[in-house]
Amino acid sequence: MKDDFSKYSISKEIRYEPLELLDFPEIINSCQKEWQNIGICNVNDCVVRLGVVKGEFHWHKHEKEDEFFYVIDGLLYIDLEDRTITLKPQQGFLVPRKIVHRTRAPVRTAIMMVEGSTVEPTGDE
DSSP of 89-112, one letter per residue? Predict the structure, then answer.
C-alpha cells in the first residue's frame, strides 16, 4: 500500500508549545505547497495537525491509532473501502484504527487532524 511520499510535505515536528496563541488563518496562509501536514501541538497523548491539501493521499491504515478529521475550509473526501464521506467546512469524521482509507481534496482545503502522538502520518502499510 505504500506510495511515493515525496509529493507530500509532512512535518512530525511540533511547532507550538503550551500557552502559545495559534492563529490558524495565518498558519494556513503560510502554507505554499499542495500537500502540507504540520504538527501544531500535543494534547496529552495526541497530536493536533493542520493539513493544507489539494489532490489525493494514498490508501493506508493505522494499526493502533484512530484519526479524526475536521474541515476548516474547502472540501474533503474520505474514501473508505465501501463508501466515500464528504466533509464540508465545520464537519468532522473519525476513522477508527485498522480501517483502510485515503483522503482527497479537489480544491485547496484546510483540515485539522487529531491522532495519537505515535501515529505514522503516511500509514502503517
Answer: TT-EEEE-TT--EEEEEEEEEEEE
